[in-house]
Each structure stands twice: as C-alpha cells, then as structure tokens.
Amino acid sequence: MNISLLQKSRYGYKPVLPKALSGDLGTLKTVKGEATESVANQNELKQLFPIGYGKPIVTFEPGEGSVTSRALKVGVILSGGQAPGGHNVIAGLYDGLKRCNPESKLFGFLGGPSGILNDKAIELTDGYVDQYRNTGGFDIIGSGRTKLETEEQFARCAEVCKARGIEAIVIIGGDDSNTNAAVLAEYFARQKHDLSVIGVPKTIDGDLKNEQIEVSFGFDTATKTYSELIGNIERDANSAKKYWHFIKLMGRSASHICLECALQTHPSIALISEEVEEKGMTLNEIVNQIVDVVVTRSKEGEEFGVALVPEGLIEFVPEMKHLIEELNDLLAHHEEHFSTLRTFEDQSEWVNKNLSRDSSYVFSSLPNNIQRQLLMDRDPHGNVQVSRIETEQLLIEMVADKLEEMKHDGKYAGKFSTQHHFFGYEGRCAFPSNFDANYCYALGFNAAILIREGLSGYISSIRNLGEPASEWVAGGIPLTMMMNMELRHGEMKPVIKKALVDLSGAPFRTFVAHRDEWAIKTSFTYPGAIQYYGPDEVCNKPTISLSLEAGKELI
C-alpha cells in the first residue's frame, strides 16, 4: 500500500475513549433503564417484533468485581455508501474484542451484505487493521448495497455464521441497514439461533439521529470537508466579484448537510428543503426569493454571491413532488409503450398528454435539460433518480429568465454570471476529523462490549457528544425504539424513522436569525482545511449543529 505523509502520521493518533470504556473492562457495569416504546405505531411493531420490542436502553459505567470474557468470534459488514471513520469503527471493534479476550476473532465480510450471503470473508489481524486506522474510506473490506430483508437471506446468514463459528454480526450502516439489522436480530431470536446482531449509525446525510443517537458518524468530517470547499469558492467569489456560485450538496431526504455548511460558511443563500415543504413554497416562489437577494445585492454593487442547494430540494416542492409521483406511476404502468418512443420529442409529447393538467403545466415549464433528466434517468424500479437532477442548474436558468424579464422592464440593471457545482463524493471518504476518529473508534469498541454482554437488536450509542470525548456516555439503544411504519413499494413496512431538519431546533433557529444579514451583507466565513494537530478549539470542536443542540453558544 502506498501511503502519504499525512496517512503515516495519522497512524500514530490514539483515539480517546469514554471513561467507562478506557478503564478495566472486567469491572464494567451494565445499567439497564425502563422498557422502551417505538416512536410510533407501537401496536403494529409489538406484533412484528414480539421478542425484540420494548428492550431497555443500556449504559456502561465503571463498577466493581471482575467479569471474565470468553473468546468471541464476530463478523462485521459495511453496508451502503461510504462515510469518513468507517475504518475506525472496525479498528475499535477489533481492539474491543481483543481487550475483552485476546483469543477473540473478527471476520470482515467482503463487499457489503452480499459478502455474508456468498460466504466471502477475511479474518482481520493486527497487521491488516493497523494499515487502516484513522483513515477514510471503506476499502478495508469494501461495502455494498445488497439488502438483507428476506427469510431466505436470514437463513443463509445463520448458515454461514454457524459454519464459521461466528456468534455475532455487526452491521455498519444507515437507517435502512439498521432496520434490516433489527429484523435479522428478531429472526435469529425467533429461530433460537444463538446469534446476536448489533448496528452502528452511519451516514453523512445526518438523518439517522434522534434523542439517543445525537449524530451519525461521518457527518462531522463530510460537512467540514464541504465547508472548506464552499469557503474556498466564497473567497474566490469575493475576490473576482463577478460570479454567482450555485452549489448542490448531498442530502436527498434531509437538509442537515446544507444547514451545517451554511452555519459554517455564511453564504448569501441557503435553501432548506424542510422549510420549503412546511411553507408549501412553489418553484416560482423559491426563484423569486433568490431573485430578490440577487437584485438587492446588485443594487449594493455586489454582483456575486453563493447559494447552497440541498440535493433533495426538488422532492420537497409540492408541485414537483406531485409531478415526480405522477411520472413514476405513469411510466411504471406504461413501461413497454414508453420504451418504443425513440426521441425525446415523442416522449415529451406522450407524457404531457397523459399527465394531469397541473403536472403537465409544471413539466412543460421546466427547461429542456431538466425534462430530459426526469424522463431518461430512472432507477431499476422505474423511478426518477432525483439525485441526478441538476437542481442547481434548474434554479440558475429560472433565475436568469426572471432577471431578463426584470431587465426588460427596467427593474434590474445588474449582471448575473454563474457557476454551478455539486459536492458529494468529495466528502464521503475524507480523512476523518479528530471528532469522527474518536467517535467511530468508540462506536466500534462499544459494539464489542454490547456483544460481550449478550445483547442483540441494539445500535451502538455514544452520547453527550457536545463534551470532550473522555466525557462521552457509552451504551446501547434498542433498534425498535427508533422505528415506525412507512409505506414502501405499496406495503407498510417497519423502518427506522429518518430525522429531518427540526425547524424549531437551535441550529435552524440560529440560521434564520442570521440569514437576512448574510444575504445582503457579504459575511462569508472561510473554515479552511480540517486540522488534526493544534489547540482543541481548532482540532476537536464538533459541528456547529451538534454544539447548538448541546446548548452551546455560537461563536
């Protein structure tokens, strides 16, 4: 493996564990709380999870006495998209198992969940794990998007684990992967397999969070990486003073990334999808809002700015959401006929004839390239791939058209030159920040203790994250506690509830208190690159969102 000087240096970083996990594990005490309830649909979920439902929250605390740990064999799976810190989860899990008993073994299933179904795994060793400590990426064992959701798959998992002598599986993933972990744990318990399942909260989108899971791992590093890039562009914009930059940011289902980056960089405009939906804003209203800022800044001699756009914005605009739903339904029912239409013009004409009047009007009003994306880019289920729609370019074109009208009417005399960007993959495999290096290591180490304590159907939980790492609280949260029932592919399914931006929460309220000033007065902040060495306030500070949620003051 070829390594950079930074990677070599990061090998020497020693992640900080919560006090309870850094002491004598033989005296560790498991404190159990009261029985828990799911966030919604309690009766339905009790029936679906008769064994796993209602388990208590557990917390690990220093205790007395001595616990002898037997050797364990554990399998680990990386599921879904990458997030900074995944390697440290595995390193923490490995070290935790070895600390409990040096004879314990950890097996990494290769290529994600398909690895366990195909029985492809490697035993992780000291030398192998040491190559990946404190580094970004998931390349230690690879990841994949195969879903573990059928009883045939669950039976295969049990078969593979028994053949290898594996007693527990750790699934590192997002809300869907951890939902599957809960269902798998319930299956093992129902079939009386002596196998436990533990989840770990991963996603840069930040939507796997609640009162118990304060943040998913990778969010800290990804938002700091994007904020560095945004700050660089802001500085360029403020230097050249001639471009409006529209930047689309990852986050299809929620705008946590966009909100955090706005708090870090103070852009001229930042759109929050959840606010758009709550206010029922039309596409034209969003465009008019942007136009107002462009025109006002122009009158002040500021012919430049930066606008942040969440990836999933278009699905939160009522008329666009309805259009996409109609298109998905229409093309699903007429797939064979639609495939015979060879030209875009024929496809567009046919779609317009078959859409409702309102949706046809919306579709026809969109720029040609956006219409093409709505019709051409479809997933294996025939649905629109919203992430591929160039929302930032759609807004640029619509804003430009509106400004041209105003110029013609003598209401605008400025210049509107634009650049567009999409920041996504740039943040998914970055070197983890000190926060994520510590947090991920603690999540993995903590998962080892959950397994040692014989727990299953839990997600590894490290809380009190607004404080220094040594003061974090370790434990586990029952996966069923975070679940509700949602309509998926025409059926009601149990799923971990996604956390959208809380419009009454401290991060959004702080943003609202400042955005009007940022819109008119150039207030750009330049965060710079993630720092790994230096004073705590530079190197070990969590995201602004997390700090505000913990009751800290915005500095």
Describe what this molecule looks like in 3D.
- By secondary structure, this protein is α/β, with parallel strands linked by helices.
- It has helices at 5-10, 19-22, 42-48, 86-100, 113-117, 126-130, 151-164, 175-190, 219-240, 256-265, 273-279, 283-299, 313-316, 318-333, 335-338, 344-354, 357-365, 368-376, 391-408, 434-452, 506-520, 536-539, 544-549; strands spanning 28-35, 56-62, 73-78, 105-109, 121-124, 168-173, 196-201, 244-249, 269-270, 305-310, 418-423, 458-463, 473-478, 483-488, 491-496.
- Strands 1-2-13-12-7-6-3-4-5 form a 9-stranded mixed β-sheet, with helices on both faces.
- The chain is globular, with a radius of gyration of 25 Å.
- The protein starts with a helix and ends in a 6-residue tail after the last helix.
**What is the average per-residue confidence, as pLDDT, rounded to a whole number?**
95
What's the main sheet like? 9 strands, mixed
Helix content: 40-55%
- As a percent range, the share of strand residues is 15-25%
Shape: globular
Number of helices: 23
What structural category arises from helix and sheet content? alpha/beta
Give the end-to-end Cα distance, rounded to a whole number of Å.
Answer: 41 Å
Which residues form runs of ≥5 with pLDDT under 50?
none
